[in-house]
Write a sequence for this structure.
């Protein structure tokens, strides 16, 4: 009954113009459904409204290219190992970081940039961004991290934004689009973030390789011991199978070519 009354109240307030429609923005969780035989997965149930705001999440179905991305909330030895692997394999990736990376490990934040990786925005507070309905408050979550990164490293952060836990609203995407940020999602991930519940290397390696598809945007967490163990072999096997590793900048070009086509 309380929920019904609350909804009626919101409807009345919207009708009378006493609150903005933005105040009741819908909350979404990004997800994908894996396909068989290395076909591209169904991403976000093929709901297309994120495309209106320039979101990127998967590349061409016709090209054997993988876009490797990491969500880095802090720095551990496994992050260093992964950076070493990427350097050895000559693979460029994107790191979506939080403030602690910059404040506690400035040298690593600099290394990511200096070795050619994209350093991108995972928000300042790592909160549910869908619940932020004020434009300035939302953008402050991004610019505050950008400013911090520049103050500590002297480098400018790339304008890619990945919402924490993949939770967002359409209004969030509109704010990003208006301010020149590119919402960045993924077409593959697995449960790798819990350091107390790591998958076995054998299981994880098979999971990644079984799900590989053209245009894959792969989301991994670099603090994962399992990822640090398997990444070198996974990259080598994918290269041997004819895949190459692209950058998010290339993925944006693909997105734009679809629009013009």
């Amino acid at each position: 009954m309380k929920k019904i009354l609350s909804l009626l109240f919101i409807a009345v307030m919207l009708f009378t113009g006493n609150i903005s429609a933005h105040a009741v923005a819908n909350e979404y969780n990004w997800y994908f459904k894996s396909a068989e035989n290395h076909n591209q997965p169904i991403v976000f149930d093929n709901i297309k409204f994120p495309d209106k705001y320039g979101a990127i999440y998967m590349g061409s179905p016709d090209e054997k290219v993988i876009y490797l991305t990491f969500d880095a909330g802090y720095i551990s030895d496994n992050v260093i190992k992964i950076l070493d692997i990427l350097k050895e394999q000559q693979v460029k990736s994107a790191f979506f970081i939080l403030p602690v990376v910059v404040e506690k490990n400035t040298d690593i934040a600099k290394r990511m940039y200096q070795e050619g990786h994209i350093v991108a925005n995972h928000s300042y507070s790592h909160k549910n961004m869908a619940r932020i309905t004020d434009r300035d408050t939302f953008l402050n979550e991004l610019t505050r991290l950008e400013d911090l990164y520049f103050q500590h490293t002297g480098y400018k952060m790339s304008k890619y934004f990945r919402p924490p836990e993949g939770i967002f609203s359409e209004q969030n995407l509109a704010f990003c689009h208006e301010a020149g940020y590119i919402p960045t999602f993924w077409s593959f991930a697995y449960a790798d973030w819990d350091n107390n519940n790591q998958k076995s290397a054998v299981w994880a390696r098979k999971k990644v390789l079984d799900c590989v598809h053209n245009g894959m945007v792969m989301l991994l967490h670099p603090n994962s011991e399992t990822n640090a163990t398997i990444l070198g072999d996974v990259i080598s096997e994918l290269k041997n199978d004819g895949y190459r590793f692209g950058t998010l900048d290339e993925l944006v070009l693909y997105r734009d070519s679809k629009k013009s086509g």
